[in-house]
Amino acid sequence: xxxxxxxxxxxxxxxxxxxxxxxxxxxxxxxxxxxxxxxxxxxxxxxxxxxxxxxxxxxxxxxxxxxxxxxxxxxxxxxxxxxxxxxxxxxxxxxxxxxxxxxxxxxxxxxxxxxxxxxxxx
Length: 122
Hints:
- It is a single chain.
- By secondary structure, the protein is α+β, with helices and mostly antiparallel strands.
- The protein has one domain: Trna Endonuclease, Chain: A, domain 1 (3-Layer(aba) Sandwich), CATH 3.40.1350.
- It has helices spanning 3-22, 71-87; strands spanning 26-34, 37-45, 48-58, 94-103, 109-119.
- Strands 1-2-3-4-5 form a five-stranded mixed β-sheet, sandwiched between helices.
- The radius of gyration is 14 Å and the shape is globular.
């Protein structure tokens, strides 16, 4: 991944974290990693644990942020969330959300949309 894409992704994650915190979520972890992959943000919303995938796009050439949450990515996120819960020996309700961050070509933030329960199936 290029440095520019890494910076854009990190910036989008920061925007998403601030957006969630403004809605009352507490950020538990950022960029949690295990051998199988990474979860961008993990947050607490009341008694529920929320795993958050952040997709950031500048312009529409690569499609919308929502389009980047493919079925394969959803399956991977479900597995990662299950690993996190098991490794931390948690007995909590949890879900997987998406935060879609979109900028114009000049870098101006156009939107930051939080989509709860973006991944279903467990």
